[in-house]
From TrEMBL:
Protein name, UniProt field: Homoserine/Threonine efflux protein
An example Gene Ontology CC term for this record: plasma membrane
Positions of transmembrane segments: 13-36, 48-71, 77-98, 119-145, 151-173, 185-203
Location of this chain's protein in the cell: Cell membrane
Organism: Helicobacter canis NCTC 12740
Keywords: Cell membrane, Membrane, Transmembrane, Transmembrane helix
Lineage: superkingdom: Bacteria
Pfam family, one: LysE
Signal peptide location: none
Membrane topology field: Multi-pass membrane protein
Single GO molecular function: amino acid transmembrane transporter activity
């Protein structure tokens, strides 16, 4: 195969990786829900603080893939422990949100409006609590195992960031049409969805250990 053909094939793969990563980023899940909630309820500053935490989680997972630790993370015991930990943490967040009586109370509880480490670490822990992410990264970058591996990882990271930034801008546009009552219901709905994600992760973790 000619060099030009190889370059074209790799280019098409990079485009495919970007599209897959972008679509995967905006697919409903704990990460995107956290970003959307932060954006609509608290604004851009909180959203980008949370995004920085989530992005650090991606770096951790991509590092596992790059250095060959993905196999370790895919072991049943690691998957089970991370799933159970994630379920507990998401359940804790849901409990705090549901206890809040107003958006201002939520700000104090979750610490996501001010530029404080709590917002960053909340997002980081939510991201790392999903062990299926490492498998997603492995599958997406598998075509680059022999060549273009580093660039493939970089393209995937950029696609994920692009997807989340798009959601932030959409959230900022929608935000100006909402009032405090709607913000509160957004928090309550988010809490219920977090409970759903927590139950799903918890069930998966327990099922892994039972089988």
């Amino acid at each position: 195969m000619a060099v030009s053909d190889i370059s074209l094939a790799l280019g098409n793969l990079y485009i495919a990786v970007f599209v897959i990563g972008y679509v995967g980023a905006i697919t409903p899940g704990p990460d995107i829900l956290l970003i959307l909630r932060n954006t609509i309820t608290f604004g851009a500053r909180s959203a980008f603080i949370a995004l920085s935490g989530i992005a650090c989680g991606w770096v951790v997972y991509l590092s596992f893939v790059y250095f060959g630790f993905a196999h370790m993370m895919s072991q049943p015991i690691a998957q089970g422990l991370l799933s159970i930990f994630g379920a507990i943490y998401l359940g804790y967040i849901s409990y705090k949100i549901l206890r809040a009586s107003s958006p201002s109370d939520l700000t104090q509880i979750l610490g996501v409006q001010e530029a404080k480490p709590a917002g960053f670490f909340h997002a980081l822990f939510v991201n790392l609590s999903n062990p299926k992410a490492i498998l997603f990264f492995v599958v997406v970058v598998a075509p680059f195992a022999n060549q273009g591996f580093e660039l493939g990882l970089f393209v995937l990271f950029c696609s994920l960031v692009s997807g989340f930034v798009s959601v932030i801008f959409v959230g900022l546009y929608v935000r100006k049409w909402l009032n405090a009552r709607v913000f509160l219901w957004i928090d309550r709905i988010s809490a219920v969805l977090f409970i759903g994600f927590a139950c799903s992760l918890g069930y998966r973790g327990v099922d892994i250990f039972l089988h």
